[in-house]
Design a protein that fits this description.
By secondary structure, this protein is of the alpha+beta class. It has helices spanning about 20-25, 75-90, 140-150, 160-170, and strands at about 5-10, 15-20, 35-40, 45-50, 60-65, 65-70, 95-105, 110-120, 135-140, 155. The protein contains four helices and ten strands; from the N terminus they run E-E-H-E-E-E-E-H-E-E-E-H-E-H. It is globular, with a radius of gyration of 16 Å. The chain starts with a strand and ends with a helix.
Length: about 170
């Protein structure tokens, strides 16, 4: 199997030549990369949180989004859509993903785009990929904020208060 090729960007976010994943993620970073992420929220205003599997980056940590690196010849929104389906089994149409925020994480040279998917189904439709996610749970934003505050080392890939407010305004 050939190595995954990631989209790369200059400091202003303009796409440049793609590079192999191992080279892009090598420290110190030479290239900027992107991540497309999705928050899943139901009509009751609860956010779907998942626990990462026990291998890979930040094992056994809870997270408030699904997502991954933008691959060559893809886009932030298509990555968000694909990673949501890969990790949760949920298939969202591109038009069902609403851009919530764009951010830059300079220490590791990341551009992030975070989307909202309003889930109107039931839990039987969620089919987590056990290689990436070991379990999931629905939390209100108050429950989520308390969980992160009480045990911050158990959480990664957060939903900042600014994003929570934008999500609440859209529900």
């Amino acid at each position: 199997m050939s190595e995954e090729i990631l989209a790369c960007f200059d400091e202003q976010g303009n796409e440049i030549d793609p590079q192999p994943r191992s080279e892009v993620l090598k420290m110190p970073r030479r290239w900027w990369c992107g991540a497309g992420n999705t928050y899943v929220v139901n009509r009751a205003g609860k956010i779907l949180c998942s626990k990462r599997s026990d291998y890979g980056n930040k094992p056994n940590c809870w997270q408030a989004l699904f997502g991954g690196h933008v691959k060559a010849n893809s886009s932030f929104i298509k990555t968000a859509q694909a990673e949501l389906e890969e990790e949760s089994g949920l298939h969202a149409q591109l038009e069902d993903l609403v851009l919530i925020s764009k951010s830059v994480y300079e220490p590791q040279k990341y551009f992030h785009q975070k989307y909202l998917y309003v889930f109107e189904g039931d839990d039987s439709e969620i089919n987590i990929d056990m290689e990436e996610v070991s379990e999931f749970k629905w939390l209100t934003f108050d429950e989520y904020n308390s969980a992160v505050e009480n045990d911050p080392s158990s959480w990664t890939n957060h939903c900042p208060v600014e994003d929570q407010q934008k999500i609440k305004n859209l529900l």
